[in-house]
């Protein structure tokens, strides 16, 4: 079946390694500057002992540095009672409120400080940071810009404006602001981290890694820098380096949930799904409200075939964050795998309400609509995905499959070609080869079938299908067995289609006992309720033909079921019954299904009407050498 795009990873975003609120990360340094600059309430010296205001000032600072923000708030409030006209006191209390994430309170206190002292650079900068946390990005940029105008060398303001510009999507301007902050104070690890985040977002992974490394040179125990550098390394493809960074962050602070969550993502990408699930579970023990960890565990559970667990985890992520697009995608993917097409379409549609330009959501909804038989609607989704992301090969390939189902072979071939122009891959090659074969263009089809073998290492399943088309049975057997063994090593539940392809290799080779033994060995590991396990159950005599077809609830599934029914009949000696099943597939089945191509080949082979097979097959078989798995 067409490859399904899961909900992502965008496997490795700021959501998966969140940085603390900006105000809190800068508060300690700002407070230090504020305390040094605070002259005390001189006009009140005659009314109260000097130690009264100084006591509350120093007590508040001590409590703040010990992260006793409630206590600091109380102390600075007492200070303000004694010195209501001191801008520094209002600013210091705003920092305590920032520690409590009371950003409205921060805005109130910094505004009062600015009213008293319009030249208070820290109050302008920190009010901007608080406005950013309340979603007022333009207000944040205006306030931090004012702080810079007051003091062009105030690096905190440059940092704060850089973060605001980042949130606004002006990444290059953000990078420039953080660079200016670093010119002023190259020993601020926060500035290196913030610029690293902006660089990573623009795809400059090397620059980001360098910035995180500079931050770590200043503070080797900064778990945020370690985790963020891991994200950049993972995005660059350096999974081992990413895992090393996440592990170091975990060793530095075993309670830092984002590092566990991100390491789980890297482990899953490396193929160690069981370990990934354990890491996500640990992240959730530390922070049950970390929505990304619920979503990431959902994806890993889906890999193992635990669709119930995947649905539960994705649902929990959505309870925590109803606007979490990736979680809607993940739940849609699990529902799609369970055959719940209407529910899957609903989830993808919800994702599109939140992000109308999501090529992945459009692609996946198109696939679900196509499976449901809503071909016209599917064809409408795929061009939108291609318009949103012109470099999305999947969008063009999937639209080609929809055109094939509608019988527009020329349009299908054009779409597959467009997909291959963007990115060479075995799946669109196989689809185009099948379309060319149906059109009678056997030489061109043979060339594409031969090219499929070039991708066998990375994409073995299309290679197995081609081997089946041309009865390279031993090659199919070996490739299927290798895929299944790898799945077991990864902790992933074996795929039923891979089991069926291996069975086909033995069945078509005239080895019925080996075919039965292969099926018996692997069927116990399958999710017996997930399609196409019903085909396996029929081949093992557990359910009748009628029960199998009743379980095949879509046109695509009926195409697949009747192809396997037909081949089983053919190789059991029931030629008429077998050909009847395969002719139904050829004439009424979904042409986008790989099984349709197999049915066509078997009919041509049996009916002796295969000039293409006679002319192409010998050269094709010579070219498709058995791949060593």
The class by helix and strand makeup works out as mainly alpha
Q: How far is the first residue's CA from the last residue's CA? A: 22 Å
CATH topology of the domain at 1-185: Serine Threonine Protein Phosphatase 5, Tetratricopeptide repeat
Radius of gyration: 31 Å
Any idea what the CATH superfamily of the domain at 1-185 is called?
Tetratricopeptide repeat domain
Overall mean pLDDT: 88
Characterize the structure shown.
With 629 residues, this protein is mainly alpha-helical. The chain is built from 35 helices and no strands. It is elongated. Helix 2 (50-65) packs parallel to helix 4, helix 6 (121-133) packs parallel to helix 8 and helix 10 (189-201) packs antiparallel against helix 11 (205-218). It is 74% helix and 0% strand. The longest helix has 18 residues, at 473-490. Among the domains are: 1-185, Alpha Horseshoe (Serine Threonine Protein Phosphatase 5, Tetratricopeptide repeat); 454-623, Serine Threonine Protein Phosphatase 5, Tetratricopeptide repeat (Alpha Horseshoe), CATH 1.25.40.
Question: What layout of secondary structure does this protein have?
Answer:
Layout (H helix, E strand, L loop, with lengths): L21 H16 L12 H16 L3 H14 L4 H13 L3 H14 L4 H13 L3 H14 L4 H14 L2 H14 L4 H13 L3 H14 L4 H14 L2 H14 L4 H14 L2 H14 L4 H13 L3 H14 L4 H13 L3 H14 L4 H14 L2 H14 L4 H13 L3 H14 L3 H13 L3 H11 L7 H10 L3 H18 L5 H13 L3 H12 L9 H7 L5 H7 L3 H16 L4 H14 L5 H14 L3 H13 L6
Helix pairs in contact: 1-2, 1-4, 1-6, 2-3, 2-4, 3-4, 4-5, 4-6, 5-6, 6-7, 6-8, 7-8, 8-9, 8-10, 9-10, 10-11, 10-12, 11-12, 12-13, 12-14, 13-14, 14-15, 14-16, 15-16, 16-17, 16-18, 17-18, 18-19, 18-20, 19-20, 20-21, 20-22, 21-22, 22-23, 22-24, 23-24, 24-25, 25-35, 26-27, 26-28, ...
